[in-house]
């Protein structure tokens, strides 16, 4: 232990709460209530699922787009929270058909910025579920990830509180 390590330990940890909002309107569900095993088991991180009532996905936080795929967007907030928005179950199989990405990787976005749109009809025609997953992919780096209870939500409503 060095001389300055003692001072680092004595400092009070700073609690930093961040509110993650719904990227789409619909019916909010807990991950455990979904049929997708990777998300329902929280293997990818804690979060929520939304059965969408519309087909436009907006940014749930301010941050930088780090992943921009046709069916999924990853955003990192300035305080290091990694938010993954994934549209549908097995929609990667659609190879982008029916999806329109609105922002490229490395774009700075603010909460409410339109990220992507998708065709609910094309997702259904392809035999897939269009559930939208909102995952905190670096859950282990967070002190607490608390989703709200099941309820109807509108895009922009608070759905998860993260303490970093």
TrEMBL record:
Q: What organism is this sequence from?
A: Collinsella acetigenes
Q: Which NCBIfam families match?
A: PTBA (TIGR00830)
Give the CC-aspect GO terms: cytoplasm
Q: Do the record's keywords include Heme?
A: no
Read off the InterPro entries from this record.
Dup_hybrid_motif (IPR011055), PTS_EIIA_1_perm (IPR001127), PTS_EIIA_component (IPR050890)
Residue ranges of domain PTS EIIA type-1 in the record: 36-138
Q: Where in the cell is it found?
A: Cytoplasm
One GO term in the molecular function aspect is: kinase activity
Where is this protein primarily located? cytoplasm
Keywords, A to Z?
Kinase, Phosphotransferase system, Sugar transport, Transferase, Transport
According to its UniProt entry, one GO biological process term is: phosphoenolpyruvate-dependent sugar phosphotransferase system
Concerning Gene3D superfamilies, the annotation shows: Glucose Permease (Domain IIA)
Its name, as the record gives it, is PTS glucose transporter subunit IIA
The source's domain of life comes to Bacteria
């Amino acid at each position: 232990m060095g001389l300055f390590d003692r001072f680092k330990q004595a400092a009070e940890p700073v609690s930093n709460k961040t509110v993650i909002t719904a990227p789409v309107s619909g019916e909010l569900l807990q991950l455990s209530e979904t049929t997708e095993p990777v998300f329902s088991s929280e293997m990818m991180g804690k979060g929520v699922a939304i059965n969408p009532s519309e087909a436009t996905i907006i940014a749930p936080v301010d941050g930088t787009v780090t992943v921009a795929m046709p069916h999924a967007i990853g955003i990192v907030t300035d305080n290091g929270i990694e938010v993954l928005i994934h549209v549908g179950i097995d929609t990667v199989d659609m190879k982008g058909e029916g999806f329109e990405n609105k922002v490229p990787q490395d774009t700075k976005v603010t909460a409410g910025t339109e990220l992507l749109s998708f065709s609910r009809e094309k997702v259904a025609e392809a035999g897939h579920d269009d559930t939208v997953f909102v995952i905190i992919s670096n859950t282990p780096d967070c002190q607490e990830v608390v989703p709200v209870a099941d309820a109807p939500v509108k895009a922009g409503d608070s759905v998860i509180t993260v303490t970093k």
